[in-house]
Structure formats: C-alpha cells, structure tokens
Amino acid sequence: MRSEVAVVPLPPYRLGLGRKRHDQFKDTQFQAQFKSFEALTRRRAIYLVATRPATLGSPHGATHRSLRSSKSHCSENDYEPVPYSVGVVSEEAGEKLWVPDIPVGQKPAYGMMYHSLQQAYEYYKDYAKRAGFEVRLGQQYKSNKNKHDNLNIKYFVCSKEGTNPAPTKVGAKSKQRKHSSKRTDCKAAFRVKYFEGRGYWCYEFIEGHNHSLVNEEDSVFLVSSRDVSYTQQVFLYQASQVNLGPVKGFNLLRVIYGEYDFIGFYNHFDSVVGCQKFAQRKNDHDSRYTIPDFHTELQIEKEASELYTRSIFFDVQTEIYASVISCMSVSVSDVDSGKKYVIQDTGEDEKLSRRHRIVKGKPLYDVFYEVLCKPSEEFYQCTCKRFESYGLLCRHIFYVIRLSKVKTFPRKYVLRRWSQDSLPPASVIQASGDTPDMILREIFRSVEYCVNRYANEPELLQKFRDHQVQLMAKADADVPIPKKTNKRDRIASILGVSQPEEIVVNIPKQVSTKGSRKRIKSSIERSMNPSGKRRKNCRFCKCSMNDHNQAKCNAVRAQIAAKKASDKAALREMKQRERLAAKKARLAEKNASASAAKKARLAEKNASALAAKKARLDEKNASVGENG
DNA sequence: AGAATCGGGCATTTTCCTAG
DNA sequence: CTAGGAAAATGCCCGATTCT
C-alpha cells in the first residue's frame, strides 16, 4: 500500500503562460528542469482544455452551461445552425453592440468588492469565458499617496480593445501582414479602484462589445481556454522523460480520455489538428470571429469575406487582387445579349506567375482569355475554366465584373460547399449510457478532477489520499476474492465484441505499404504546386523551378562528378609524374654506375699503361746502365 | 521512400506597462 | 487618455531526423 503522495513540482508550459505566471517559477530549483521542459515543448506545445465533467458540476453558471450545451446534442439530421451572435444586439447611434446574455448576479456590477486585483481579474475572466470573449490587462494608475504599493486603478479590457493598424508601405516593397489584427477597438471594460484596507471595487463596467461574441461551443478556441491540467502536465512531463514527445504524449492522452469532446483541445499546428471536425470548426470560428485584412478597396472583396469560409476566402482574395493588378482588357465585342471581353493576363501577380509560370508551354503573359458576360443575368464564363474546375471565380471574371461596374458579389457563383453557412454540423458523440467503459472513464475523470483541485493543497491532497485508501480497504471487504475472468473474455469485453461461433477469415485486401509507390507527375503538374505552399528552392543552385532539392540537384551532382574527375586526373598525373621520376632516377643510377665503371676502367687502364710505361722506362734505364 | 516529427531561425502580433 | 516600447507569444519556413 502506498504511504506517500509525491507532489511533483512541475515546470509550467511556456505557451499559455504569461510573463506573470512565469515569474511564479523563478525559484532556481526549477530552472534547469524548467529549461529542458520548455525546450521540449517550445515549438510543438499542445493546448489542452481542461474540461470539468458535467456530472461534477462547474463552479459558475452550471445551468447556463448545460442549457447551451444541450443544443449540441441533436442528431445530424435535425441540425440547426447555431445562431452565432451570442448576446443581445442593440444598435445605438449607428453602431452595433453585442451584450452578453448573462443574468444579473453572474456578471460584474457597480460596487462589487474584491479582496484583491487577482480576484477581480479571475472574476472578470470567468465572466468573459461564459460571455464568449477574452480578457487582457489594461491600463493602471498608481498614486504617490498610496503607502502599500497598491495600484489605485486597474482596467481589465476585452482582448479586442484598441487598434493595431497595418504597417504602412516601407520603401518599394509593401509590407503585407500575414495575419490580420484581431483588434476592433472594443470598448468593453471592467475597471476597479482601490479601497483602503478592503481591496478593490468595481466603479465601471462596460458591457457592450462592438464585435460578435463566441458561441459556448467554440469557446475552446479562445486563448483563455487553453490550459493543461495538473495531471495532464504530469503525464506529458513523464512521457517526455521516456522520450515520448509532446505530440505523441498528447495523442496518447487523447486516447486515454476518449474523444475530443471529453478532452477538448486546441492546437495551433494544423498538422496535429488531425480531426476533421475540429479543423472545420476552427475554420468556421476564424470566419466568424476574425476579420481578414483586405487587399483592395473593392466592395466585392468585403462581400467575399462574408460569403466564403476563411481559407477559401484567401484564395478568392488572391484572384480579386490579381484582377486589379494583372489583367488588361484587349478588346470588347457585343454578343447576343451580353459582351465578350478578351483579357490579357500580364502575370504581375508574382505569386501566381511563379506558380503558373508556364501554361501549355507558353509563358503566362502570352495567354489571352475570353470572358463572356451578361451582367443583367449575372452570367459570367471564362475560357480559363477556373470556375468549372475549381468552383471559384477567376481573376478575369473579377476584372470583367469591375469593368461592368457591378458592385455586389455574384451569389450565383458562390458554391454551397465553400460558403460559410454550409459548414457541416458538429457530429456529437453521445454518451451511450452506463457501459462499464463509460463508468470507468467517469471514475478516472472524477479522481483526476480531485487531484487537479487539490494539487496545490498538500494537506487536502493527503486527506484525499487517505480517503482513497479507505475506499480500497472497503473494496477489499466488499469483494474479498475478486472473480477471475478468463483472458479471452477480458479481451472481448475491452474490444466490445464477442467471439463468433464460426470464424470466417477473408483474404485481406492487398494494400500497398505507405510510401512504397510514387505516382509520376507530369511536368505541368510539377510546375503547378497545387498545395499553394511556397516550395523550397534548392539550397545549392537557388533554382526557382523548385523541382528538386539539394540532394537531387543536378548542379550538385555535376559538381561532385567534376570534382571526382579532376581528382582522378590529378591522381593519374601524380602517378605519371612518379613513374617518370622513378625512370629518371633509374636512368641516372645506371648512368652513374656506367660512368663509374668507365672511370674505373679508365683509371685501371691509365694505371696499367703508366705501370707498363714505367716498366718499360725502368727496363730501358737498366739496359742503358748495363751497356754504359 | 515517404510521412511524421522536431527544432532553429525569423517575422510578426499581442500583451503589459509607462511616460507624457 | 494616447503613444510607444519591451517582452512574450505566435506562427511560418525549412532542413534534419526518426518512424513506418
């Protein structure tokens, strides 16, 4: 039996923690641990939404929550689009105001007292979460008279407070934002004043927002909903200890917790949003809650932003922008009840000119398109057939629409599949009664909930542990000898199936292994890049054709081959030189030995000649002596 | 071989706070 | 109340590594 509950001090997740909360972890003891953990989760950190199981109740506005969420539990057939503008909309002085639909008593009010700034902040945040917006800190004022270093006034504002104007053109290159600002200059605020000795009181509460609020069901997409509960942190941290990265750890959590609906998660990285439903909901949320940056002043662009889902809008926006800068009318002629324009695409639009650099073997700017238009019938047709193949209008048609002085977006050409109000209903996984599986999950969740609650209260945590130990003893008493299930039955119950009487094994379908085959793409397809992503250039040759990487770069290969050849040549040359040198040496040696021998012979000869001469001389002298 | 994941680098936006 | 700045957060790109 365990006798101790270890409370592991955890480093916080980097994301979702503001500067303030980081400060809480300044303890040097954590530093090293924190750093490694932070590095681990830095890029791919996961946002999990701590959900409170309905059975356990939520501390605030439980009825409100359950009323709302009951809406979602309808079958797919009788799906009704959830009205998005949560709250009461009032129009004053030509300005729309969204006022959260929260009953009195559950929202801030003039004169409310709070012990501390933190409490006031938490209260407002909680209200904001129910109301469907986000909060951040606002201005603050400190009085010199204040002895206790307390702030005199603190504002808490809607996260859409203020403005963040798009950067103006810098030099020749216009700096275009990739992401639009979320600020709408919302005036909603909650302001508190210091009250000597008692805390802070609310002296102003501006309830109305100048933007729509987020529906309860989409509140998971709010930053304030991003949180990783204590036990989840422990889990992810321990997973990291055994070399299980955050993504895998998260996937594991997902499995343990059941479905997305139970765990509720939100992630910034598309790659991890594997669940189609969530990807769609996120797109839907973005479409409704944020306003994109417009590239033109055209009414048609604004309308498009309201008609299309966000990701599709960006595509349409590109075309509208291109219609302004890269299309030219070459000729117009009357046809039947309409007009026929010949449009030249100059390919000014850089992105697309790179993408469609060559169309049917011709450079883009050489391509002319014919647009048939009957504005009265809202009829447009272009020979580029973009609408027919993609379901989205082309730049040439947008150009003609502008020429025809049509201001509204032709609704006829907004296909239902791209439009905002055609997003599919969220398929809700219904709890299927009290199956053992559900009961187990419920138990795990309730225990986890308690642990999260008590995480920072060691005494209460200990009490909870003791209580659990008692329950264990009770379980022992209740069931002294647990029934043994046979392995087969256990597996069957886990899998939720029973073993069939007769086993029929079908011949499995032949499925090719992942990545074992590669479809050969045509040259046109290769140059198209349908994903829209900017392709990587080869690092080596910087080739903009983007059809290869450094590993497959012909230039690299050529360089390597050239180097090999030159190396080989150098080697050959060196060997040749060596051979020559050796030959020379041999020759020199031979010569030397020959000359030495010759010299020796000569010397010998000389010596013998000399000796002979001397002998002859001696002989002569001797004979002269004898004779004289 | 291709998919999935990781992680450094960088640009940009948001948050929080202060000076004037 | 506004403007502006520092720091934190966010998100994309892209090459490298690991997994399947």
Give a verbal description of the structure.
The chain is α+β, with helices and mostly antiparallel strands. Among the domains are: 85-164 and 181-214, no CATH class; 299-422, no CATH class; 537-593, no CATH class. The protein is built from 18 helices and 15 strands. It has helices spanning 19-23, 28-41, 62-70, 117-131, 230-241, 246-257, 260-263, 276-289, 299-307, 310-326, 350-355, 386-390, 395-403, 436-454, 458-478, 487-495, 523-528, 554-627, and strands spanning 47-48, 88-92, 95-99, 113-114, 135-141, 153-158, 189-195, 199-206, 265-266, 327-335, 338-345, 358-359, 362-363, 368-374, 379-382. The strands form 5 sheets. It has a 5-stranded antiparallel β-sheet with strand order 4-8-7-6-5, with helices on one face. Helix 5 (230-241) packs across helix 6, helix 9 (299-307) packs antiparallel against helix 10 and helix 10 (310-326) packs across helix 13. The chain is extended and about 165 Å long. It starts with 18 loop residues before the first helix and ends with a helix. The model is unreliable at 1-86, 168-179, 259-277, 350-362, 423-432 and 507-536 (pLDDT under 50). The chain binds a DNA duplex (20 and 20 nucleotides) through helix 1 and strand 5.
- Sequence of strands across the biggest β-sheet: 4-8-7-6-5
Number of strands: 15
Pick out the low-confidence regions.
1-86, 168-179, 259-277, 350-362, 423-432, 507-536
Strand content: 5-15%
Average pLDDT over all residues:
64
Principal-axis shape: extended
Helix amount, in percent? 40-55%
In terms of quaternary structure, the protein is single chain
**What is the CA-atom radius of gyration, in angstroms?**
42 Å
Quote the distance from N terminus to C terminus: 145 Å
Let me know the largest β-sheet.
Answer: 5 strands, antiparallel
Number of helices: 18
Q: Structural class of the helix and strand makeup?
A: alpha+beta
Biased composition (Basic residues): 62-71
GO molecular function, one term: zinc ion binding
Protein name: FAR1 DNA binding domain, Zinc finger, SWIM-type, MULE transposase domain, FHY3/FAR1 family
Pfam families: FAR1, SWIM
